[in-house]
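quick one if you have a minute, typing this from the bus. theres a chain ive been looking at and ive put its sequence and its fold in token form underneath. please have a look and point out which stretches look like helix strand or loop to you. anything you notice is useful, everything is just below.

***
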Amino acid sequence: MKGPGTPPKGPFDELSCQYLRGPRRRLRAPHGHRLRGGHLVRYDVEPRQRRTCGGDDHRPGRRGPPGAEVLGRPAVGEPFKLTIGSSDEARPDEFEITVEDVTCGEPLDPKVLAHTADSMGEPTQNPTPESGKQFCVVAMEVLNVGKSEANWFVDDTVTLNIDDTAYSQSQTDAAYAGEYADYWSDQGESGPSYGLNPGSKGPAHAIFQIPEADEPTTLWFASSDWLEGPTGPEPGYLVQLRDTGRS
């Protein structure tokens, strides 16, 4: 695995003029799905570059964590490969991940909440985000392209970003994400947190909380079991959250 390096210079792909606004905001891939957040960290950014698009719009240049090597900048719906070292150096864990859908400003999936309540024998709860914040739910498809069974977890490896501010899953949000994993497993679609054999794929969800007036711009996926190692930020992929033109 490559160590930390300097990310390429230059602006990222511009955000689409079609970015949705209002209480319900969704970024959908051609074959959509779901997303979430917690505490924050800061990323360095390049100076904003103005552009004209329906009046007042802009496209900031963005990078991953300072000092992290950016391995690629896929869009929503475009797969990318994470290679994560293991105890067997000749057979690292390898996953092909596709961000399918990012949904902000909506309640958590009622089917998931009902499933959790039923499994615990309790009334269905309707979680609410922290004051002034909104839930964002990220839906992904994860394919094991390695040579042995492997697990992959969003905790400590993924952040949802608003320009230069990065949000990770809080413990509470990670618990909600676990409820999504349990629900889909009981539907016969086990995800990577349960372990995937080579050639198998399954859904994964991450849940973040961000300010209710904001919209996410990127997702950072560390190609490691953690965002930062002993020598600094791990290399990773910066997924560009732009509208694909699908509702």
Q: What stands out?
A: DSSP finds two helices and 15 strands in the chain.
